[in-house]
From TrEMBL:
One of its GO terms (molecular function) is metal ion binding. This is Protein SCO1/2. InterPro entries: SCO1/SenC, Thioredoxin-like_sf, Thioredoxin_domain. The chain crosses the membrane at residues 223-247.
Length: 257
């Protein structure tokens, strides 16, 4: 009887508080993240997100620096996406591995940063940071983002989801990139939109329009297909009209010389 009661209480606890059900992201378009909080860099220096942004977009990855599961894969996948496109940390944006466990410190952040740079040497040394901080400072950022995570005593770690937040220089949330490895072109579009500047070419402007990100669904819109069909129809009509005009011109009677 006593054993059955213990099992029943354990089952009730799991249903009432399941960290893996608690973990997730609440859609908060245009949420503003506080950038003034103080965190520690991998070398132990105090810094704020505003210092690191320095007028550039922030690509912020919530991680556990000692995570035995998805965090390393998330950072590696993001690093590979960065290496496969033209925008670069330090020049175009700032990459931050943002530690969500307040028990971690610069030593854990330094090891994580070294692993990341070793995995993708093409990233270079500039514009990549690993931060740790106090619980209240961490929560101020994650709560503003709508990023939910919870401690699980059973596995002695935080249950959390794999995602990358792209912030405008003033701290406003521009995009969430979900999953372990964002597509390089998706990352490029997200950072370019977060800069609040016009794309460099007409083609890039078309891409930003067609693949405009919907933060409520976490997906890119299908407008590209409609636009491509319309452009294709215009090309066909234009080409057909030009051919008809050329044929008609050739058939005109030639007057006396």
């Amino acid at each position: 009887m006593r054993r059955a009661l213990v099992l029943l209480m354990a089952a009730f606890w799991l249903v009432a508080f399941d960290p893996f059900r608690t973990a997730g992201i609440d859609p908060r378009p245009d949420a503003r993240v506080p950038l003034e909080g103080t965190f520690l860099e991998a070398d132990g220096h105090a810094v704020s997100l505003a210092d690191l942004a320095a007028g550039k977009p922030l690509v912020l990855v919530p991680v556990l620096h000692r995570c035995p599961n998805i965090c390393g894969a998330t950072l590696a996948g993001l690093a590979q996406a960065i290496a496969a496109q033209r925008l670069r940390p330090g020049r175009d944006f700032t990459l931050v591995a943002f530690g969500i466990d307040p028990r971690e410190g610069p030593a854990e952040a330094s090891a994580d940063l070294a692993d990341l740079r070793h995995a993708v040497p093409a990233l270079g040394p500039e514009g990549i940071h690993a931060l740790t901080g106090a619980k209240d400072q961490i929560r101020a950022v994650t709560d503003a983002l709508g990023y939910r995570y919870a401690w699980d005593d059973r596995i002695q770690q935080y249950a959390h989801v794999a995602a990358v937040a792209v912030l405008q220089p003033d701290g406003r949330l521009n995009h969430w990139l979900y999953g372990l490895a964002p597509a390089p072109d998706e990352l490029t579009r997200a950072v370019m939109e977060a800069t609040q500047r016009d794309p460099e070419t007409w083609g890039q402007r078309i891409l930003l329009l067609c693949f405009h990100y919907d933060p409520m669904t976490g997906r890119n819109g299908p407008l590209i297909w409609t636009l491509l069909r319309a452009v294709g129809a215009l090309v066909v009509l234009g080409g057909g009209g030009w051919i008809a005009w050329a044929v008609g011109r050739d058939r005109r009677p030639v007057g006396p010389s």
